[in-house]
Amino acid sequence: MTEKIKIVVVGAGVSGLTTALLLSQNSDYKITVIAKHQPGDLDIEYASPWAGANYIPVALAGSHEEVYERNTWDWLYDLARYTPESGVHLVGTFEGKDRPGCHEYFPPRAKDSEDSPDLRQWRDEIEKPNPWFENVVPNWRQLSESECPAGYPRGVSFTSICLNPQIYLPFLQSRCIKAGVKFRRLDISHITQAAQYFLHNQRDTMAPNIKNDTADLIVNCTGLSSHKLGGVKDEKLYPVRGQIVLIQEEVDYMISCADEDQDTAAEGEFCYAMSRGAGGGSILGGTYQIGNWDGKVNDSTTERILRRAVKCCPALIAGSQKTGIEDWKKLTVVRAGVGLRPARKDGVRIESELITGKAWKGWVVHNYGHGGYGYQSSWGCARQVAKLVRDCVSRAL
Ligand SMILES: Cc1cc2nc3c(=O)[nH]c(=O)nc-3n(C[C@H](O)[C@H](O)[C@H](O)COP(=O)(O)OP(=O)(O)OC[C@H]3O[C@@H](n4cnc5c(N)ncnc54)[C@H](O)[C@@H]3O)c2cc1C
Q1: Cα 214 to averaged position of ligand 1 atoms, centre (Å)
Q2: pTM of the predicted model as reported, rounded to 2 decimal places
């Protein structure tokens, strides 16, 4: 019997779990995932649980990111149609009647886009008459001014997906475990330390002979933490702070637009709303604050998010029995939270590197720096990682 290739994936966010799942489909590999945070945790160093999360293309045409987002659509679309236990659901129907789909409205003066090159790039791409994704997402079309709310001269509509990270992350982890991937909670200070923690057996009573072994290869999916992780220390990484509010009420379509009241909107704030699958309520956003590491919820931001959501989606409070209070106070808040998008100058880093540590030298394949598009590019990125892993394995033999 030939020896299997022993791989340790560091990180159990959407990037690490998706990568481990895809790699586990290759019977030549055995995989261990080590991570400080795992599905179920809520922490400022763990971006994945805070995401909305939806699929709204942000990649520039012709970029690597375009390939990653394009190659992720079918995976998410199939889950939405055939695997409801994944927590992924379609927003919009083929008929487009009862649920009008995902709507993006463009303001006359893209205030926030002026502040941020990332947002400007995203707006520029999505506003094109024929963007690269017009034939990727179903039912893409530009909206006329009469179809947009007052104050928005342009907009687009398409069928999209929304996924509920509270269900989707455990779903990915379960699929990994079923495929034989081992998990271990661990905080490392240098990427090469991960190599010591390849596990042959899970730590449970049915498998008493636990044996740590040395990995042949490491995959680094540590998100924003790669800026301080020994052996990586990537200075191109920076946080983009996102404050969100989870409410009980459900919106009947996904919406994203700038604040209607643009003169009083705070820097880096805009409005989005989406219902999470399987009765998860709705996520309201939010902020896009570049370089801001603050993990604390700001109460005045929460109030502005709620005010804007009611303005953009009045249907949210249509059935409310509460009278005599301001409209935004009629919403039932479950919690407000903050996540840090792991953004990177030059975009996501998917590349292999030969790294030498104190006790191990070998190939590390990086997969981090996904900014605000980690879910919608996850499968495409994992496919690129799988290709690099194959290259590294053949180089090492
Ligand atoms: C408010 C908000 C809204 C968003 N909306 C969307 C959206 O609608 N669509 C979309 O596609 N994306 C969205 N994103 C972006 C998306 O959430 C991120 O790109 C994605 O979650 C990054 O995942 P990751 O696995 O790379 O990193 P993370 O989720 O941060 O995971 C990092 C993992 O590495 C582990 N780790 C780190 N350092 C160490 C260490 N030293 N030792 C051991 N383990 C370590 C952590 O414990 C964790 O398990 C949003 C993000 C935010 C904050």
Answers
A1: 26
A2: 0.94
